[in-house]
Every structure is written in structure tokens, then in C-alpha cells.
Target: Putative hydrolase of the HAD superfamily
Amino acid sequence: MCPTPPSRPASLHDKPPHHEPLRNRADWAQVRDWVFDLDNTLYPPRLRLFDQIEARMTAYVARELKLAPPEADRLRHEYYRLYGTTLAGLMHEHDLDPLPYLHEVHEIDLGHVPPAPDLAAAIGALSGRRWVYTNGSAPYARRVLTARGLDRLFDGVFGVEDAGFHPKPRRAAFETVFARAGIAPATGAMFEDDPRNLSVPHEMGMRTVLVTPDPSEPDAAGPHAASPHAADPHATDPDAPHIHHRTHDLAGFLRHLI
Model:
């Protein structure tokens, strides 16, 4: 059974940055599988990695479909909206080979990505198994985890290729990955920056945590507002039933569960 969400979840700017994660500590003690998204979840949006990825996506779409860059960019956003990811739209509409696309769009510069010792300590202290599940590629995720000093902490890393190229938020994507990892949703927790991707985990019985930008950072609103899911009403609805908790301090949230 899904845990009962708090009656009044905190807004994005409430203090503390997490909403009563210990309200039902016994429930959290039952978690055996901790599943983390990657982009803007295990690193802050201010690093703007997705800016690089999106630029490479647009260039790839423009080249492969012989479109002007503005039209390629428009189509990329439309496919994201309709299919969950740009890649899913390209595969459905144009029978695109996904592997070259995944390799090219994720070949980005990570030189400015700092290690995250506080987050590493918090994740490392969790009891149970720890997973990364991203709509990007698994090799890209491993590169980012290495840059963040998190690469030795996880029992497995899953990319969209491991979900049969079904993207989150499709139920088939979660079912495929959870089956491969042997994750029982009733004893699992999902951490995500995209509120759309918490709906199915909630329906499956997982605890859900929305990871939001830190409002104290100067450009906190910028990358989040520019992200493709910023217009989703669940992003600002404090009563969305599939968002059980929200935090802009993932390390601090996890420390309160230990």
C-alpha cells in the first residue's frame, strides 16, 4: 500500500528544505531499494549539464532530419511533450536508431562538475540497495557519478536502453527496470526532479520525493524554469497526491532518514 502523503506538503521555498521525512520513520525503515534519477537530482541544476545535452539534441535532429536548427529545436520539444523524451519521438516518428543518438548527445563536458562528499556520505549510509535510473544512457550516468564521487555507491545503473527504450514516465519503463533489478515497489523509494516521473511509482506503491532547485542559489529558477517539464502543473501544486515529499537538499533529507 502506498504511504499516506502528508496533509500539507511544503512549498518549494519552505524551511526546512524537506517536508517532515521522519513523520513516519517506521515506514522509511522498511525501504529496501532506493532509486535515484540522475539529471538535476544527483547534481544541482546550476551545473547546466542539460543545456549541453539539449544543444547536442537539436544539432542531431537538424542533421538527421535535414531541418533548420530552429525547426529542429521546436520538434525536439514537441516530441518530449508527446512521447516523454525526444528519443522516443524520433524512434516512433522516424524509426531512428537510438544507440548512435544516445552516444552523441551525451558526449558533453563534465570538467566543471564537482564532487559531492556530503551527498556521497548520506547515500552510502542508507540501508538496502541503491540504484540510479535515468532517461539518459547508462554510460553517461556512470561518467556523471564518477565526477560526483558517487560511482562506488550504487548496486546498479539503468539507462533508457535498459528499459527497452521506453522512457519515464511510461509504466512499462518502470516495470522493466524494476523487474531487472528485483525491486519491490512497496519497499522502494523514488527520488526525481521531474514530477511527471513520480506518478507511476506512487501508483505502484513507492514512496516518492521531488528534488527541487535550491532557492538560495542565484540561478535556481533559471534552469528549472527552462526545463521541458517546468510547465507541468504538478511542479507547483503542493497537493499533488503522487508527491509525498519534496526537498531542495537531498543530502540533508537522506541524513534525516538514517
